[in-house]
Amino acid sequence: MIVAPSELHSKISQVLASFCPSAKSNIRNLGIIFDSSHRLTCKVFKNYSCICVITELCYLNGKTFPDGVYYLTTGNGMLYQTYCDMTTAGGGWTLVASVHENSVYGRCTVGDRWSSQQGNNADLPDGDGNWSNRNTFGTVESATSDDFKNPGYYDITAEDMSVWHIPNNFPLEFWNMEAAAVLRYHTENRFLRLYGGNLFQLFKQYPVRYNVGSCGDRGPAIPIVYDHGDEDLVFKYIWFHVFRLKDEFEPGFITFRAINRERATMAICSGVKPTVGYNTEHYCIGGGGYFHPEQCGDFPSFDYDRLGGDQGWSASREMTEAAVLLFYR
After folding, report:
1. 213 Cβ partners below 8 Å, 6+ apart?
2. What is the pLDDT of residues 100-150, one digit of tens each?
3. Which residues are CB-contacts of 144 (< 8 A; sequence separation ≥ 6)?
């Protein structure tokens, strides 16, 4: 991919402006990305997310843009690549991160970027700290094969979130197939406006840190709208076998910063709201730098009674072997 030569930029900008008058005021921030055949493949706006493509340029000459990989820029002009969901609930969803468990048997070892790669250590209560820092890692195409975080995570000012649970190693070109997902949902009450506009700011208010609060202390629990699955699926199919937990949570929510009995902190409880909170390590993801010795990692204790055991305290194989993709809009 190369940036279009400067002598072409003015002419191309004029053409795009003629198609989309509402974009005229933003043309100075427009970058044009070409492939080696000089075919227009992507529109780039400074400090915009995928929703910009919907609101400003998506209806060029009556055409819409498909789901797929796009280039965006940050407020400081950094170019980055991400996936845009242009379909769900009106589209405009920007992929900003994925949480992938590379080895559920590891206990805060290499690859546990959303908890700690530095071992299970109470003296490092924040772990790697990636829920609330500007570190980035991974690539969009490998977001179901490894952890991923792009600058949009901290740069975009958003209102809502969408979450996809996609099986590990699933190819990007098929992510948008409904049957591909274990679970998909989004929020629609613009809750991020109350917490700084993104997860970076939310987790400044609710730190993902060991011993930051007491058992049952949690951040906001936000109602969700299901795009694939329902409450029955969440309760009976995904978590049903964790029988001891059936009275500990309520499906139909996404919850942030949950704290368990041992004062370990988890970042996100996907699809559920803890009502007691004693054992959130079995169904919440991410975390700080210290857990009970058998619970440390990006999926802290999903394998407590062996991987995919469908018994005791283990989470389902479907959830354990799926990456969690996080989108903003």
Report:
1. 259, 263, 265
2. 998 777 789 999 999 999 999 999 999 999 999 999 999 999 999 999 999
3. 98, 100, 166, 167, 168, 169, 170, 172, 175, 323, 325
CA 272 to chain centre: 16
The residues, ordered by sequence, that sit 6+ positions from 171 with a Cβ below 8 Å of its Cβ are none
pTM of whole model > 0.90? no
Within a 10 A sphere around the Cβ of 282, how many other Cβ atoms? Answer: 26
- Asked if residue 295 lies in contact with residue 282, where contact means CB atoms within 8 angstroms, the answer is no
Q: Quick check: helix, strand or coil at residue 208?
A: coil
H or E segment to which residue 153 belongs? helix 152-155
- pLDDT, averaged across the chain: 81
String of b and e for 119-137 (b: at least 16 CB within 10 Å)? Answer: ebeeebbbbbbbbbeeebe
Domain ranges of the chain: 1-87, 102-329
* Spatial CA neighbour of 243 closest among 166, 309, 293: 309
Rg of the chain taking only CA atoms, in angstroms: 20
> Which residue, among 252, 238, 211, has the nearest Cα to 314 in the 3D structure?
238
Written as six digits, the tokens of 266 are 């988890």
